[in-house]
């Protein structure tokens, strides 16, 4: 199931901003129904009839750069530590593996700073 279909389940109602890619385009009514105080920061179409709107394109690039910073740890968890599939051998075991993987990805992200502290 795609994320845009289950958008109401992803929102808890106290959001102030909602960032999303162009798949969430046209979900403004659902967004305002489930998170009335949230501002919509989803990417918009910037090309109409072959003409590129440079202002809208620049806005989309800014929104995408913010999302990329948030999604980078998930890339590490999936690619570097192999957490691409969930194996249902026990929910406690899955939760433990996920928590350990998150801790390892945090250490991986700050490894250079930690090495500088050790060298000093």
Characterise this structure.
With about 120 residues, this protein is mainly alpha-helical. Helices cover about 55% and strands about 10% of the residues. The chain has 5 helices and 4 strands. It has a two-stranded parallel sheet with strand order 1-2. It has a two-stranded antiparallel ribbon with strand order 3-4. About 5% of the residues are buried.
Short description:
The chain is mainly alpha-helical and 120 residues long.
The biggest beta sheet is recorded as:
2 strands, parallel
The N- to C-terminal Cα distance equals: 50 Å
Strand order of the largest sheet: 1-2
**Class computed from helices, strands and strand pairing:** mainly alpha
Shape: extended
Roughly what fraction of the amino acids lie in strands?
A: 5-15%
Radius of gyration: 19 Å
Keywords, separated by commas or semicolons:
120 residues; mainly alpha; two-stranded parallel sheet; two-stranded antiparallel sheet; 5 helices; extended
List the helices and strands and how they pair.
Layout: H1 7-10, E1 17-20, H2 28-34, E2 39-42, E3 47-48, E4 51-52, H3 54-80, H4 91-109, H5 111-119
Parallel strand pairs: 1-2
Antiparallel strand pairs: 3-4
């Amino acid at each position: 199931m795609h994320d845009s279909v289950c958008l109401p389940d992803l929102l808890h109602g106290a959001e102030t901003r909602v960032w999303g890619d162009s798949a969430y385009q046209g979900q403004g009514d659902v967004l305002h129904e489930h998170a009335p105080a949230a501002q919509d920061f989803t990417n918009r179409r910037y090309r109409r009839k072959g003409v590129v709107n440079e202002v809208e394109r620049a806005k989309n690039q800014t929104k995408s750069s913010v999302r990329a910073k948030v999604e980078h740890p998930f890339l590490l968890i999936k690619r570097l530590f192999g957490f691409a599939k969930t194996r249902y051998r026990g929910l406690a075991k899955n939760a433990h593996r996920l928590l350990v993987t998150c801790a390892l990805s945090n250490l991986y992200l700050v490894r250079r700073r930690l090495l500088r502290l050790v060298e000093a």
